[in-house]
């Protein structure tokens, strides 16, 4: 249903794509941004159906989370499109891309259409799909890259599994050129990571847990950069965590290779010590690294080597986490913590507010070629109103995600989404929002 | 073991010393802890450690129950935490736990309100083994400080090595580890030990040589090329032992692989090897642990309720 005309007044308008940061208003008409800026409604009260006084709060494009595991279809007891939608909206996210590791795997057009239909029915966050790069994510036969692209798939990846076979990957990169598709890699050499549970090093030695060496990531990134250089296909590394891999990507970008990468908040907000006394909620793939790597990730976000921040939302229930460390699942949920953890980079003075926001709005949108993540006249009114400074404490019990596997429980953070708007409809309003 | 102070270790060893004498009497049993219950919960098979704890418990007058994994609900899919809760509801005073996963004993200890003794968790720790090794050394040499102890073999996968490193380091001994590089965990230098990959250099002027068991599955090709090569370079024989001090002695936590990590003649040489004393000290040390963990728990009051101090839970220690 079109939402009619709504005016958002007295907002601090933020558009990271253009650098806009000024006090003004936004007019939404029929679910689209009709106009915005400081000039709007200067002459007097608007004649609209609804007026929202933002009282100086920030109004920005809704967040775009480029890496989410939905668990629907197949594992709805962990998360589904409704619960993930609620969690995303509570985190200020208006659009996301889901990995193909559902059951069945997203490697065929009907699965893409199923998810699109479920997302339409849920009427919450906008959902895009990755498709598997290889059938069943088995690393052998290519999926129908052309047909899937036409069905609206944003990129191709084997999800949490690396595409290991160099020949398969180089062929995929060549073939994908014809369709201008993007390929996303989980960069981890599996033979080095085999049986590994956490970052290899002193802490793993002390805890008696087998380690995953940093080289597992570095080697894969360095190899893949060679393969990427053989084609013109856009190639993206997911959740990069080590200084050397980031250096390699930095260098490749300077040489003009079409490579990009992202990281997840836990790689700049935590280091391996979060595991402490065998905390399985901090067990994640790739593993949390040491402090040196954490700082390298922060620096790479600040200098633009890391293009985007994605939540890498990976829901797991208590039953798969409340186990001895070696038996527990890998993964951390992140939809509701993406914004406050990203804002830590701003509060800790590593970057400006607009730069931090860009990593979760226009930059991931551009990578996936989505018309989202920016304030544009005529574009869908996907917006978030947030207070960048409001202090609060992350509370697992209040999370909307069906799974609660977060290592950030009780962490004091600053910055909170207060209202999330999709196509002009207010789908989330924080209970304590002064709006 | 990590985190235990020198005075706490000394208290355990002093207490154990007393039990060594008790265990040598014809009447070995005391009623000190009569009425308390100890459950041996072994998720991984171990005849010697389980028997040692069982004897230790019985000699202190506790009721001892052995839970073997083969017949327990874990085989039916019950999780570790559920098993812990179930046993906890039966009000044991001490749980002795062995598990193949590092950290599993710590996890279990968080869910119960009785004392928990770690009888070995994965590659993490095996505290009572380190204590019995320390007691053996102390009774033989009279001290732990200013000794040079070489721990040799599969350090990477050994909980015995980790606990011994922490204990000996805390007590002021100089600790060396000797192993092929594939069996050394990363960042070993951060443990306050000296690292050697040559037995002759590592054993030079040592007071004590501790050998570790090499697991069968690690012998062939994956970590070391062959048993033959391992024995040649890392197995302990009279020739290599000659580099240590003349009165240096040999320890092994058992069970031994004769001809793999240790020569049979050395293992049986009662002048050089204290392997059987280690087993004897094992019972005494475990009695001391059980005693110290339960002694201060209040006896059942008039209402029949037992007050259990939550801080008594020993966790991974």
Distance between the termini of chain A: 22 Å
Order of helices and strands of chain B: HEHEHEHEHEHEEHEHHEHH
Structural class of the helices, strands and pairings of chain B? alpha/beta
Radius of gyration of chain B: 20 Å
Strand segment count of chain B: 9
Structural class, from secondary structure content of chain A? alpha/beta
Question: Can you name the CATH architecture of the largest domain in chain A?
Answer: Alpha-Beta Barrel
| Oligomer category | heterodimer
Q: Ranges of chain B with pLDDT <50 over ≥5 residues?
A: 299-317
- The number of helices of chain B is 11
What's the mean pLDDT score of chain A?
A: 95
The CATH superfamily of the largest domain in chain A is known as Metal-dependent hydrolases
Q: Kindly estimate the percentage of residues of chain A that lie in beta strands according to DSSP.
A: 15-25%
Q: Low-confidence segments of chain A, ≥5 residues, pLDDT <50?
A: none
* Dominant shape of chain B: globular
| Distinct helical segment count of chain A | 14
In spatial order, strands of the major sheet of chain B run: 7-6-5-8-9
> How helical, in percent, are the residues of chain B?
25-40%
GO molecular function (chain A): allantoinase activity; dihydroorotase activity; zinc ion binding
Family (chain A): Belongs to the metallo-dependent hydrolases superfamily. DHOase family. Class I DHOase subfamily.
Catalytic activity (chain A): (S)-dihydroorotate + H2O = N-carbamoyl-L-aspartate + H(+)
Binding site for substrate (chain A): 101, 316, 330-331
């Amino acid at each position: 249903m079109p939402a009619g005309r709504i005016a958002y007044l007295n907002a601090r308008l933020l558009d990271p794509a253009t650098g806009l940061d000024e006090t003004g208003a936004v007019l939404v008409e029929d679910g689209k941004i009709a106009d915005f800026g400081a000039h709007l409604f200067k002459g007097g009260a608007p004649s609209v159906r609804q007026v929202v006084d933002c009282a100086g709060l920030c109004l920005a494009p809704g967040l775009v989370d480029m890496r989410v595991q939905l668990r629907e279809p197949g594992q709805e007891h962990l998360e589904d499109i409704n619960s993930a939608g609620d969690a995303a909206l509570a985190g200020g996210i208006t659009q996301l891309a889901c990995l193909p590791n559902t059951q069945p795997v997203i490697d065929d057009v009907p699965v893409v259409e199923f998810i699109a239909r479920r997302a339409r029915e849920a009427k919450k966050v906008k959902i895009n799909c990755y498709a598997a790069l290889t059938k069943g994510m088995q690393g052998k036969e290519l999926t129908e890259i052309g047909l899937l692209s036409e069905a609206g798939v944003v990129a191709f990846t084997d999800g949490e599994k690396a595409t290991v076979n160099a020949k398969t990957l180089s062929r995929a990169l060549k073939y994908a050129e014809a369709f201008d598709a993007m390929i996303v890699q989980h960069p981890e050499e599996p033979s080095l990571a085999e049986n590994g549970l956490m970052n290899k090093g002193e802490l793993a030695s002390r805890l008696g847990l087998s380690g995953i060496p940093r080289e597992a990531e570095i080697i894969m990134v360095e190899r893949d950069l060679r393969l990427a250089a053989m084609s013109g296909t856009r190639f993206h590394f997911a959740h990069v965590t080590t200084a050397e891999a980031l250096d390699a990507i930095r260098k490749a970008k300077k040489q003009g290779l079409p490579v990009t990468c992202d990281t997840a908040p836990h790689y700049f907000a935590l280091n391996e010590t979060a595991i402490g006394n065998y905390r399985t909620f901090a067990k994640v793939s790739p593993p949390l690294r040491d402090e040196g790597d954490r700082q390298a990730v922060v620096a790479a976000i600040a200098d633009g080597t890391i293009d985007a921040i994605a939540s890498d939302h990976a829901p797991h229930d208590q039953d798969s986490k409340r186990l001895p460390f070696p038996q527990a699942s890998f993964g951390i949920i992140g939809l509701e913590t993406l914004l406050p953890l990203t804002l830590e980079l701003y509060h800790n003075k590593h970057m400006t507010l607009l730069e931090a926001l860009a990593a979760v709005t226009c930059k991931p949108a551009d990578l996936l070629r989505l018309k989202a993540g920016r304030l544009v006249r005529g574009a869908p009114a996907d917006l978030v109103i947030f207070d960048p400074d409001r202090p609060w404490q992350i509370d697992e019990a209040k999370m909307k995600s069906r799974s609660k596997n977060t290592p950030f429980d009780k962490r004091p953070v600053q910055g909170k989404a207060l209202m999330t708007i999709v196509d002009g409809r207010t789908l989330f309003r924080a209970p304590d929002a002064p709006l | 073991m990590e985190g235990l102070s020198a005075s706490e270790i000394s208290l355990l060893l002093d207490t154990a010393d007393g039990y060594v004498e008790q265990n040598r009497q014809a009447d070995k049993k005391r009623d000190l802890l009569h009425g308390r219950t100890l459950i041996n919960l072994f998720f991984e098979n171990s005849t010697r450690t389980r028997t040692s704890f069982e004897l230790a418990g019985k000699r202190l007058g506790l009721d001892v129950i052995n839970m073997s994994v083969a017949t327990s609900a874990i085989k039916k899919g019950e999780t570790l935490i559920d098993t812990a809760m179930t046993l906890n509801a039966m009000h044991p005073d001490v749980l002795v736990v062995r598990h193949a996963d590092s950290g599993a004993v710590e996890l279990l200890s968080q869910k119960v309100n009785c004392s928990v003794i770690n009888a070995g968790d994965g590659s993490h720790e095996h505290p009572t083994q380190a204590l019995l090794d320390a007691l053996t050394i102390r009774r033989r040499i009279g001290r732990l400080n200013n000794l040079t102890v070489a721990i040799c073999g599969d350090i990477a996968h050994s909980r015995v090595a980790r606990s011994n490193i922490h204990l000996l380091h805390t007590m002021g001994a100089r600790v060396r580890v000797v192993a092929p590089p594939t069996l050394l965990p990363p960042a070993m230098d951060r443990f306050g030990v000296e690292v050697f990959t040559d037995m002759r250099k590592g054993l030079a002027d040592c007071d004590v040589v501790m050998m570790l068991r090499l697991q069968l599955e690690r012998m062939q090709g994956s970590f070391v090329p062959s048993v033959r090569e391992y024995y040649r370079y890392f197995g302990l024989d009279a020739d290599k032992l000659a580099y240590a001090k003349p009165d240096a002695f040999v320890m092994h936590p058992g069970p031994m692989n004769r001809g793999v990590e240790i020569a049979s003649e050395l293992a049986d040489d009662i002048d050089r090897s204290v392997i059987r004393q280690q087993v004897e000290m094992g019972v005494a040390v475990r009695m001391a642990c059980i005693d110290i963990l339960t002694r201060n728990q209040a006896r059942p009051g008039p209402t029949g309720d037992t007050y259990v101090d939550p801080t008594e839970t020993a966790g991974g220690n």
